[in-house]
Amino acid sequence: MLAFFGLTFPVILFANIVFTVYWFAQFRVHAAFSFIAILLSAKTCLGFIQFDFTSDSISNKDIKIMSYNSMLFDLYNWTKNTESRNIILTSLAEENPDILCLQEFYTSEEKGDFNNIDTVTGLLNAKNHHIEYTTTLRGNDHWGIATFSRFPIIKKGKIEFNTSANNICIYTDVIIKKDTFRIYNMHLQSIRFNKADYKFIEQVKNDTTDTKDEVEKSKNILRRLKRAFVKRAVQADAIAAHIANCKYKIIVCGDFNDTPASYVYNTVRGDLKDAFVESGSGFEQTYAGKFPRFRIDYILHSKELTSKNYHHLSETLTDHYPIVSYISY
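-> structure tokens emitted (329 positions)
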């Protein structure tokens, strides 16, 4: 049940802020209850909203990290825009990160235009790559996850999940100035709504639902959410255990498919720092789809590292915004 409350945390937070201001203006003691609730949840609040009025200077010694759910580079033309893949790739080239973590990666050895390994390495300085496939069809078409690095890769590994979905976590050890860093790149369990679910969500937003089907459709939404919560929790436990045994400096990137109020986020984060909390600003939203737009994509890092200038790109052609941070050490 707590997982469901985690989804509504921003709404609950906003309501408590409103009540605090309202009761305070009325000189009523009730304001104290909402204010105390906000204070008790301060750590969680900071995962959603930050106020940073400083400007960090970026040096050429800093590592530029980018994480992005590329949605298969719009392989199936969900955007109805034939130029979407080129626009996505141009955006990656303009950012030119030192380390790029892509979730929902697709490449084809047969279709020249969709050989995304060659295309990405041709566009970026990050020529080294670690790619793991969760699905391969016809021997040439591959779906999976990919990490591209400007730095030499000395070891590759993966944490597989017992699921039929395209969810996986990979780790890549790279050498940066004689020091070893481990890069985790993950895509955790999706809710996997179908078209009927999205249609119902849209109807709820527009207040055009049919009351006859409303209860059953709502139950279906809740069942899918519950199933995803349970699977992600198991995945998060496995990743956290792996991170705990790592002796290197760590950078974590990925699509967690869950909010900063979730068990998943707090379990994976553990003692790591959150780049948005350290150097972000505003109310962060990384999901750009039809479901309520939460922050579900993250860049985390070891305590001895420092993050600068966390931000997400203002435009995207997928259902996620690319996120970027600079890491100094």
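The chain has a mean pLDDT of 88.
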